[in-house]
């Protein structure tokens, strides 16, 4: 090995839980909250990817669940990365989140790529039932800090 290649992640963890309105206005709020959480703590997960995937989860929850019950955003910063969950009142699992669709998305359609992005860009993703619906989540691994020139 040529020099230090080991990365020791931080041992502290933190989490946030916030109710968001069941409307499109929740998407930019969720993006901003995730960015603030990751930036404020100088966490090693990729902020841009976390924001994008959070926006996809929140937009899906707003678009694909009926009613006006709030959705909930949970951001957990871990020593190994971060996990983001979106809770919504619909117990139905989210389409093809954990299994790729056999068909390619139609290049002319505006929709149909969100779950593909989540599968492709996260280190893991999934969903689980909750007492009031479901939680859809993704994880991003921590990225080692760049070496700075001396």
The description of the largest β-sheet is: 5 strands, antiparallel
Q: What topology, given as strand order, has the largest sheet? A: 1-2-3-5-4
User: Separation of termini?
Assistant: 20 Å
Shape: globular
Number of strands: 5
Which structural category fits the helices and strands? alpha+beta
Summed over residues and divided by their number, the pLDDT gives a mean of 81
Beta fraction = 25-35%
Description of the structure:
The structure is a single chain. 27% of the residues lie in helices and 26% in strands. The chain is α+β, with helices and mostly antiparallel strands. Strands 1-2-3-5-4 form a five-stranded antiparallel sheet. Helix 1 (26-40) packs antiparallel against helix 2 and helix 2 (47-64) packs antiparallel against helix 3 (114-121). The two termini are 20 Å apart. The model is unreliable at 1-11 (pLDDT under 50).
Short descriptors:
150 residues, alpha+beta, five-stranded antiparallel β-sheet, 3 helices
Offer a concise description of the structure.
It contains three helices and five strands. The chain has 150 residues and is of the alpha+beta class.
How is this fold's topology laid out?
Elements: E1 14-20, H1 26-40, H2 47-64, E2 71-78, E3 81-88, H3 114-121, E4 124-130, E5 133-141
Helix pairs in contact: 1-2, 2-3
